[in-house]
Design goal:
By secondary structure, this protein is mainly β. It has 7 helices and 43 strands.
């Protein structure tokens, strides 16, 4: 089971399993009936729940009077539907009994009764800053047939009833095949939009004959929502303050994190873009709570930046481009006047680098013979955006890094590894193995209490031993039951610069998954340079061991995101499946799995080098 975001412990599959290790209320003195998931008083928004546990294979286990199916070893993982509210389950094995309560929370807010807005339904929720003339929208959930409006500054905005808008499940729903939109049936949402001109707002807010200075921002305060129903009226102040920003005085920030996380929107639910190298300077065109909207369209958390007082909007020209051809990599140097935002896109046989807030004055650059680059092209995409296309000699890319040295951007592109000649097929190859979880982070839990972190380590060591016999240099992120953060694991990959990096895990499911029937080997990748490795290893192991396929997934995972090496996360099987767990803990099967993975690595390199 893997972590989805750095610093945020989410799993496509499902950290809840990793956090519960104790059964519910035990009514028998000798307890051989064990339930590791869910614990009593568990809360979920899913429409069903599975029970992972075990009991001696002799005898029968019942849940709410229904006989359940078990594996040869007595493990079980049946699913049961949930009603909104409290659900009580009784599990029985012979004279033993467990009582478990599961509460299902409603996904859709309730329509308020009477003269009131639905709780927490007024938007915007956080303080926001927008440019003069930019559209600002408001919404609220209120009873049917109500009249709803918002007063802010010099305007009153009517909020009108909206057609039902489908709600989208979160990303992990794609792993259970339940990612269809849900159309709410009981929501009456009212919405309306307007815009505020800085000059108009200033004239209406500032009294007297003095002409307001439209170069400064204006605080409009919090919107006042009004609801009228059956001749009665109530008002409620919104939680988010609104400020109109002057385009003449945009705040400039500098990225202080080693790799500032740029996103498509103001929050961690939004997709990631190319990280911004430390030192990047950029104007802020809007705010949403702690999030800053940057002038090239991305968002970043303000905690990863610092304000540069008095700075003007950064812009640069670019002329010549230089490069350093080193033994293991090529460094391309872009001399700039200011460290501007950048993005990278990998394609088949090319890498595209885009510089924002940049105008080209390029007439000459050198293109000697290079181990990986066949040609460099460039184009001015628009007045503020220059694109450089590195045409490559081979499809497979081996990793890249971005950094600023002063105001010069340095792009490091790794050369293919050089295998040493000899009888060992992986001589000259460096493999990093990351046994998932460890310490206080157990990962998923099997029906009998087996912890994912332990089997991850066992199989990683077996893979290590096989790879070393074949001549590889192997680096392990952990060799014992040690806790490592995701950031620490990423740093090890970037520091060690392995030829490839593999994170070893075992899977589980979200609450609405079918734990009893879902099983198989899965591979996850993020950067295109890792796709072929993920696909090859997945198909190789599935075919060689005759294992079911869970699938190959593009996924925004902390251990697939390092760009310095092709990085793949492997889910070797499902801890939550009552039959597959028996293979996962079998020492003979563990050796077969490790051997298949190391064989697959050898075969992949044969095809690539």
């Amino acid at each position: 089971m893997f972590y989805l975001f750095s610093g945020v412990k989410l799993v496509l599959g499902l950290l809840l399993l990793g956090s519960i290790l104790t059964p519910s209320l035990v009514l028998a003195t000798e307890q051989s009936l064990k339930v590791v998931y869910p614990r009593t008083n568990h809360k979920t928004s899913a429409d069903r729940i599975f029970f992972i546990g075990t009991a001696p294979p002799t005898g029968q286990v019942f849940i709410n009077g229904k006989l359940i199916t078990r594996s040869k070893s007595g493990h079980f993982a049946p699913s049961f539907p949930l009603q909104v509210g409290e659900n009580n389950f009784t599990l029985r094995y012979q004279d033993q009994e467990l009582l478990i309560k599961v509460t299902r929370t409603a996904l859709q807010p309730k329509i308020p009764q009477g003269l009131a807005f639905a709780p927490d339904s007024l938007t915007p929720v956080a303080d926001i800053t927008r440019l003069s003339g930019e559209t600002i929208c408001f919404s609220a959930i209120a009873p049917d047939s109500a009249n709803v409006s918002v007063k802010l500054g010099n305007q009153t905005v009517t909020l009108r009833p909206q057609p039902r808008t489908a709600q989208l499940p979160d990303n992990k729903a794609a792993l259970t095949g339940s990612n269809q939109p849900i159309v709410p049936t009981n929501i009456s949402q009212y919405s309306g939009c307007t815009s505020f001109s800085l000059l108009t707002s200033a004239n209406n807010i500032v009294s007297g004959a003095v002409i307001p200075d439209t170069r400064t921002s204006i605080d409009l305060g919090k919107p006042e929502f009004q609801l009228t129903l059956n001749g009665k009226t109530t008002t409620q102040t919104g939680t988010g303050k609104i400020t109109i920003l002057s385009p003449a005085q945009l705040e400039v920030v500098e990225v202080t994190a080693e790799a500032g996380v740029a996103r498509t929107g103001p929050g961690t639910d939004y997709s990631r873009l190319t990280p911004l190298p430390k030192g990047t300077k950029i104007s802020v065109t809007g705010k949403d709570g702690d999030w800053l909207r940057l002038d090239y369209g991305a968002w970043i958390n303000s905690k990863e930046t610092r304000v540069i007082p008095g700075a003007v909007a950064p812009h640069t020209i670019i002329r010549s481009i230089g490069y350093r051809n080193l033994p293991t990599h090529t460094e391309v140097v872009f001399p700039l006047q200011s460290p501007v935002p950048v993005s990278v896109q990998q394609k088949d046989k090319s890498l595209v680098l885009t510089l924002y807030n940049t105008t080209a004055q390029t007439d000459t650059f050198r293109t000697d013979n290079n181990p990986i680059i066949s040609r460099l092209d460039w184009q001015q995409v628009n007045p503020n955006q220059v694109q450089y296309i590195f045409n490559l000699k081979n499809n497979q890319q081996w990793g890249y890094k971005l950094r600023y040295e002063g105001t010069s951007l340095v792009l490091t592109m790794r050369h293919p590894p050089v295998r040493n000649k000899g009888s060992q097929p992986l001589s000259g190859i460096k493999v990093l193995l990351d046994p998932g979880h460890g310490g206080k982070e157990p990962g998923a839990t099997g029906p009998d209490g087996t912890l994912e972190k332990d089997v991850n380590l066992v199989i990683s060591k077996l893979i290590r031993d096989d790879l070393i016999k074949r001549g590889a240099t192997v680096v392990m992120t952990r060799e014992d039951d040690k806790e490592l953060s995701l950031v620490e694991r990423q740093k090890i990959i970037d520091t060690e610069a392995p030829t490839i990096a593999l994170s070893v895990h075992h899977n589980s499911l979200p609450d609405n998954g079918d734990a009893e029937n879902t099983k198989g080997f899965g591979s996850f990748w993020y950067h295109p340079q890792a796709h072929d490795l993920a696909l090859f290893l997945h198909n190789y192991v599935v075919e060689k061991l005759k294992r079911p396929s869970y699938g190959v997934f593009w996924n925004n995972l902390a251990l697939t995101r390092p760009a310095s090496s092709p990085s793949v996360l492997l889910e070797l099987g499902f801890m939550s499946n009552p039959n597959e767990i028996e293979l996962i803990v079998d020492p003979k099967d563990q050796k077969q799995m490790a051997r298949a993975i190391s064989d697959g690595i050898v075969e992949w390199f044969k095809n690539k080098l």
